[in-house]
Amino acid sequence: MNKRLVISDLAMAYSRDGKGFSLKNINFDLGDSEIGCFLGPSGCGKTSLLRAVAGLEPISEGSILSNGLCISTASSVLPASKRKIAMVFQDYALFPNLTIEKNIVFGLDKLTKEEKFNKVESLLSLVNMEKYRNSYPHELSGGEQQRVALIRALATSPDILLLDEPFSSLDVEIKESLIKDVKELLKNFSIASIIVTHDQFEAFSIADKIAVINNGEILQTGTAYEIYHEPSTKFVADFVGLGTFLPAKLEGKDTLNTPLGLIKNFSRQNFKESDDLEILIRPDDIIHDDTSKMKAVVVDKHFRGAEFLYELKYKQKFPLLCYALSHHDHKLGESIGIEVDCEHCVVFKK
Amino acid sequence: MHLNRLSLFIIIVFVLPIFALLSSAFFPYGDNLYHIYDTVLYDYFFNSLSLAIGVAFITFLLGGSTAFLTSMYNFPLRRLITVMLILPLAIPPYINAITYSGILENYSAIDIHNLFGSVLMISFVVYPYVYLLARGAFIEQSREIYENSQVLGVTNAKMFFKVSLPLARPAIILGVTLSAMEALADYGTVEFLGVATFTTGIFRTWIGMGDTISAAQMATFFLTIVFIFVLIEQNTRRKIKYAESTKHRRKFNRISVPKHIGFIFLIICLIPLLFGFLIPFFQLLFWAFFKSDVFSKNELWDITFNSLSLATIGSVIIVLISLLFTYSQRLNPTLFLNRMLKVMTMGYAIPGPVIAIAVLVPFSYLDGFLNNISNNYFNFDIGLIFSGTFFVLIFAYCLRFSTISIRSLTDGFGKINYSIDETARLMGISERKILKSLHIPLLGTPLLTSFLIVFVDIMKELPLTSVLRPFNFNTLSVKAFELASDELIIDASGASIMIVFAGIIPIIFIMKNIYGKRNLL
């Protein structure tokens, strides 16, 4: 299959002597018009990886291929200016001394005047910003600046578009609608893109393929659904989504003994009966039911509008999380009924 | 890469004379050094140091008090006074001394031809350094601090001594140190008022006695004293960087005081303005327009033209080389270039006479060397190429005045995010277009500010210009000083007022920048 971007066995060094690695064993690929995402806590190396793809940082091992052409190895780096890769920076990097129009055509020296005019017109209309053609960046709001940065990056018709924390400096209210717009735009252009973020909800709502990075390594690559429901390591389980870990033991071939009771038809075979195991319980695995005989004590609660997120203690020592519709307003210390509905059984060795 | 090498080469050429001067410490002592040591060296040392300390003290009083009052309290004419308090910067200390000496000619009771007079003459025109920096610091903290003090029920006086002053201390120390350095480097004032300091002593030994080695050795010794002040200055600068808050500043409601107290505050703020600007300025105007016919003579206009062209050429060259240095440091930052830039930016601290001797000695040697070669091998006398030409004069200006432009361009580049460069590079834009279409427009203010400041510095400059200028080439500063030294103070007023006019222009520009942008009024 034709891949737009292939990163294989990449490593990046901290320092020029090549001793400490900020990233290692990185493998990642991206098909045409696929939206990829590097998700991880700050300082994990995700932005360095993005900058390596852009050609702004050297790599010390492995290779990066774009459209089958090798653009980075340890010994040779195709200059950033020749890669046909565009990038939207966290601060948008709009040229403050140029109008929006001049910002967009800055990299389009080869076009005629008329072509430039039309290009700007069509790009601005894509994001409903035709009237800002002659405005300066500082006259725009954060969201508008971001859209300009995006269409400016798309103007050069790059093969790959990189976005570094594109939504991090925006207000929560406009973030959601903007993420939707950006996703639509990227799909319209059918451009391969990578988004770097520390925010899992951004990653979930925009990316086709997410790589979770921690301490310079990719821990898991997959769709949002896979990463949430089938995390491959405890870090991924913990970092992505909410949940608590309870002790568990394997009994027989396919039964798991947990404080919440026995879970049958457990299919993972690679554990032994003697192993100390932990099972991940997501809030959506616990269902609140006032009539249930199984009770847990409310330790803390967080009002989320339509629902409460309850922090519970089961049998006085096992922490659980549970969503309940917000008319179920229980007091702290109250015992409430719960039921277990564990569809995805995620278990790790302790 | 090429740019870096070019920058390094140019910087090293500039810095070499300073190192050459310092190496004179290892030569055998000059003929007159023992004699100087026995007779006047102690005076030079005592006077230079007393001058620096005296100026530090007086500028602290003048600048500190005016900064505090204008930033904390409301009183009549406060806005106008706030702006006008920096005007004394337009008057060079020696012009101030010349003017007051003329005013006081007939009052024998007040004699300024002594150390104390020099301290006052310099302090009244350099206190704005302290004023500007201290004001910035007071304004920076004022709002939160004073609202807190009200909430906590602490008295204003206690708040001032326990919190405000300690917080503003680095800024005040920096301003005071800069003023002291200005005093150390002063040549015109002390020469005119007859106070023997290192700067005048170096000239006396070098040009009067013709003893270059002794003069160079004195200069080296003097530099070590100057260097102590440089260390204090750079150290406090670092502290200020950490103390600066980046928070958005809201407007501060100044404390209102009863009418009679407001009147006292007004008087306190008027004192430095009156003595540092209004009196000398209007006196010079009066002399120039009503007491002399300087404006009707062609000579003044010729000299003004000389000064303007010299200052224009000099400041353009200085801003261009500063741009070259800072731009290559941005493209490809290296530690060595950075270190050399640091050495280069010490130029402002080196007094004019020291730079003069550091520059002229090697270039005269080089001239002699070239002439020997051409005489011996080609039987041809090529004359002086470097010494006594504009080359060596501009070279010396670069060494002395590039500090301000290198610093402000470095700051200016620092404010342009690297993501701007990287975005442009990813678009496939050439370095040249990035510099032309993005960096230079974005550096507009620092480029213009440094051009203006360097321009005026060159207009005002006295010792370097008078020693290094080509034969028969007169400038306003040299002419004013010559006439005044011949006791023709009223005739000197024409050239003097021209220098002051030139000095006012960048001050207005800087005022707009400082007060206009940052809600400081």
Blueprint (SSEs and pairs):
The complex is a heterodimer of chains A (350) and B (521).
Chain A: E1 3-13, E2 21-31, E3 35-39, H1 46-54, E4 61-66, E5 69-73, E6 85-88, H2 100-105, H3 113-126, H4 142-155, E7 160-164, H5 172-189, E8 192-197, H6 200-206, E9 209-214, E10 217-222, H7 224-229, H8 234-239, E11 244-251, E12 255-258, E13 261-263, E14 277-281, E15 286-288, E16 295-303, E17 307-314, E18 318-325, E19 335-340, E20 346-349
Parallel strand pairs in A: 3-8, 3-9, 6-7, 7-8
Antiparallel strand pairs in A: 1-2, 1-4, 4-5, 9-10, 11-12, 11-14, 12-13, 14-20, 15-19, 16-17, 16-19, 17-18
Chain B: H1 2-23, H2 33-39, H3 41-72, E1 73-74, H4 78-84, H5 93-103, H6 115-126, H7 128-152, H8 156-185, H9 188-193, H10 198-208, H11 212-243, E2 255-256, H12 259-291, H13 298-331, H14 335-344, H15 352-378, H16 390-415, H17 418-426, H18 431-442, H19 444-460, H20 463-468, H21 476-485, H22 489-517
